[in-house]
Structures are given as structure tokens and as C-alpha cells.
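Hello,

Our lab assistant flagged a job as stuck in the queue for most of the afternoon. It eventually completed. Since we weren't sure the result was trustworthy after the delay, we are filing this so someone can double-check. Below is the sequence as submitted and the structure that was eventually returned. Let us know if re-running is recommended.
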Amino acid sequence: MTATPPARPTPPTPPTPPAPAPRRTLADRLLAALGGLAAGYGGLAVAALVAVLVRPEAGPIAAVGDWVVDRSPTGVKEWAIRTFGENDKTVLEAGIMVLLAVLAALIGLLALRSLPAAALVVAALGVVGMLAAVTRPDSTSAADALPSLAGAAACAAVLYVLTRRLTVPRPAATAPDRRGFLLTGAGAVAGATGTLFLARSVGATRSENAGASRDALRLPRPASPAPAVPPGAQLPVDGISPFVTPNGDFYRVDTALVVPRLDATSWRLRVHGTGVPRERVFTLPELMRREVVERDVTLACVSNEVGGSLVGNARWLGVRLADLLRECGVRPPSRGGPADQIVARSADGMTIGSPVETVMDGRDALLAFGMNGEPLPFAHGFPVRMVVPGLYGYVSACKWITSIELTTFAAYDAYWVPRGWAAQAPVKTESRIDTPKAFSKVTAGPAPVAVAGVAWAQHRGISRVQLRVDDGPWQDAELGTEDSRDTWRQWVYRWHPTPGKHTLTVRATDGTGTVQTEQRADTMPDGATGWHSIEVTAH
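-- returned structure --
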């Protein structure tokens, strides 16, 4: 019997070598960057929608922008105002958007290499936005964190889906699913766009209440109306600033990236603090039932450089702030009052400090709700703002005011003081050449050239304006009729130029006889000084 040979063991099957990782081409990297942009767009869209439901100021762009504004060196802020004027906020928001776009593209590239690392970066950005929102001065709820957190979550989700299309191989596939990536990315962008439209629609609906309350507001007739602007206050000179600045042209300088839109029906003003024995809360109807006064007052921004445009004149309607303070039992320091500073707080968290003595010295310091015959525009403080003749705006002109607290300058520094600005800042005597423009050409000949502009020294008035041609003697200009010492004053000088280049310089004298100083000083810490000069060519 033949023995059966033992069966040979079956050799083990060699393991299947892992599929080689797909080679990352330039096209893959470009798609990854686009995926990061799409994810960022989706995140911002979701954040915008949640911000509308919470409050617009809590959105990541507004919150981070305000954080940047609050912590930027004063010199940077002044440079932005000088360079971009009233468009400084638009430029800041555009800069943030560009930075976020670059970050989104880089995050997309990072996700191609490590999706968890990219998710951590997105989460970190969400935390930054959350912290910026909940640490805003006007933040009163943890809900302010929701827009940034929701936006980060949406961004991470879109990034995950798109990146998987590029990194997870399909069965029997030798290249990433680029077609699927493009289709999914297009769907994400379309969804984000729809979300943005929804956010805008909801936001418009919510802001309708504030808009409706402004539209429904009927300004009362003033018990103390302003006199008509006297004939001759507006000089018949082309190119000169209008005596009354239209609301749409009135300068705006503040830190609000999102203009507060307050509902007048729910607005309240609280008066409280040191030396206020009778604290009060006022509604807008209560203010409007008081003695209403109307006054022409010129406002000026402390950031206005010599010859700058951050100054305007308007007819304001409101109630005297001093009357409200007296009703609450407030006494100025000269009469034994313990508080020497009024801290006005805005709905956006801004604080502005004004001297109690100045507000109660008899000048027309107003809580204004009307501007040039209509309710205050939202951009200029609707429903109520402060107007104090003779003080720069940063120490008097609180917009969207909701609180007045009496305290002392020693006990509290308002917003701008720790940033290098003076705690008290009366307006300085200034003058400006409006026409002709700098470096323009004028005609030399028998017909005179009108050199004209405005001068201001609120609460002191303007008594004289002089013009100097080159190094010649000072010549008196013709003054427009004075409206009041709280408004600017127009002037004109009829000049017979000789051919060639000329330097024109203007200076003013205020109502106390003090001549505008020649000494050049920057806007910090309490307003610019110096004479305004321009160069023109006569031919």
C-alpha cells in the first residue's frame, strides 16, 4: 500500500499593497483653495443669518472690526480718518474680508494635507469671533457668541465634505473626484448665497420696526424756535460750503461698523449717578412733551485737520439737557455739586465725557431728536443724541444715547481718554479756504477772483477773517451775516491776482478778540491748530 505524501502547505497570499496616494497636482491644490473659499463663504453666510436673529452687532465681521478699531493705536485711527475720511469703516470691513478670503484659501490647502488641522484653525477663528462679540461694551448676553460659533461649524462642515471629495479615493478610481467636488462646491455656494439673501430679508424685516418708528415720528413745534437764517449768512459765491449742511452731506465720524437702528417706541434714557438724588428714566414722548427748543449749531470733529471737512452746521430740535439735570437734582460744581463729568453712553457701548459745568452754564446744550426739519437720521443718532455748542464731538456729541451718568473726571475715563485724547476739549478757532481749490488755476485780469470759505469758534463767534497773499499784509475779508455765535461764518475776499504762483493763507479772530494761532499742532490730544494755506496759479 503506497503511502500518501503529506499535502504541501498553501503558501500565504501576499498582502495587497496599499493603493498609492493620489498625486496632488496643481489642479488639486487650486480646487482645495477654492474649497476653502466656498467653506468660508458658507460660514459667513450662516453667521450673518444667526447675527440677524441675535443682533447684527454680534456678527463676526462687525465684532472683529470693532475689536480692531478699539485696539488700534490712535495714530493708526487718525491716519485712517485722514486717508479715507468717512469711508474708513468701509475700508476696514473690506480689509477684513480680503484677509478672511486669504485665510480661507490657505485653510483649504491645509485641509488637503490634514483635515483635522484645518478644522482646528477654523475652530480657532470661531473662538476669536466669539470673544470679540461677547467682550463688546454693548454685549449683554452670551447669545452674542452664537453667530461666530455657528459660522465656524458651517465652515468646518462644508470644508469636510469638499475635502473628502479630493482626498478619499473612489473604487477603481485613479484620481480625485473633481467633478463631484465642483458639483458639491457649486451647491455649497448656491446655498450660502440663498442664506445671505434670507439674512438680508430677515434683517430688513426686523429693521422695519425702527424705520417705521422714525417714519411715524412727528416732530413737535418748538416753544423756542430758532430765528430764520439771516439774509447774507449765505454768501453768493460758487464753491463755498452751504451755510446749512444737508443731512446727507453732514460728516460722520464714530466707531460703529453697524449703525444702530433703535426703535423709538422702546427707547429709554436713564439719568443716574453721583449727585443725582432723583434718578429718572425718560421715554421719547416724555422728552417731546417738554419745552422744545430749536437752535442752529455747528459741530466739529477733533480729528479735523487744518483745512479739513469734518465740520458741519445744522438746525437741531430738542430739549435742554440742563433742564433735565436740574429736574433730577443735579447741581454743577460751582454750586456745590459733587459730579464734574457727564458720561453719556451710546447703544453701541461708546462713552463720551462732558463737563457738567459747561453743559449747565446756560448754553444751548441739547438732547436733540430733530435735524434740519426731520427726525435724526439713523447715522446721526436716531432717536436722540447730544449736541453741545463749543465742544468737540468726542467730548459732547453722543449719538444713540441711552444713559447719562454723573461722575467725576478723576473717577472715570471715557472711551477716548485712555487712547491719548484730552478729557476736556473746547473747540478751537479755525478757518478754511473753500474756493479756489488748492493747486487750481485762476484767471489774472480786471475781474476779481472770489477767495471764500468758512470760519468757526463755537460759543465765542467769529468777529474777523483776514487773508494774506504770499508774504503780503493781512487784508480783511468780507464776512457773511452772523447767525449766532454757535454757528460758523462765511467770508469772502475779492482778489485781483497777478500772473504766477501764489500762496493764499487765512486766519480768523473769535468773538473774544483772540486771533487764531499760527502754531501748527496735530489733532491729538485736543484738536489741530494752524493757518490754512493753499497754492494757486494765476494765468
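-- support follow-up --
The delay was a queue issue, not a problem with the job. The result is valid. The two ends are 134 Å apart (CA to CA). The first strand starts at residue 268 and ends at 273.
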